[in-house]
Specification:
mainly alpha, single chain
């Protein structure tokens, strides 16, 4: 089964569940749709027919929502705030192109091999702060 087909089948089942459609009702809907030749299972449907079934479910009120990865809360301890402040100052100076939290996390990872500010030890955070200060000092000369 290809990825798009699998994704559509999953989406159809999510739609059925969100619409509180019982299995029998769902199978009757499939059987009654023109062009499906009475098929009552998504496993037997072609890609274009899966798209038609999804459109039918949308017409019944289903709304496709994008997957949202849960965001990790920002570290808010004093050292993390200082790191973020220095990073943003470097951005304002034109030294750092990307001021985003993702870019900062990549920089921190390159320095410490730790993926998030929240997980830095005190000494690792101090090291990052010092390197940012040194970087700023070199730029200001």
């Amino acid at each position: 089964m290809n990825d798009q087909r699998t994704r559509l089948i999953r989406l159809i089942h999510v739609a059925r569940r969100e619409l509180s459609m019982e299995s029998d009702t769902y199978r009757l809907m499939l059987a009654g749709m023109k062009g499906l030749e009475g098929t009552t299972s998504t496993a037997d449907l072609s890609l274009p027919n899966l798209k038609r079934v999804l459109e039918q479910l949308k017409s019944k009120g289903f709304k496709v929502r994008p997957n949202k990865k849960p965001k990790r809360p920002l570290a808010d301890d004093p050292q993390a705030q200082k790191i973020r402040s220095l990073w943003l100052q470097l951005h304002e100076m034109g030294t750092v192109r990307d001021s985003s939290e993702t870019a900062l996390a990549k920089y921190v990872f390159s320095m410490t091999k730790v993926e998030a500010l929240q997980w830095l030890t005190t000494s690792q955070a101090s090291h990052v702060i010092e390197t940012l200060k040194q970087w700023m000092g070199r730029v200001q000369q």
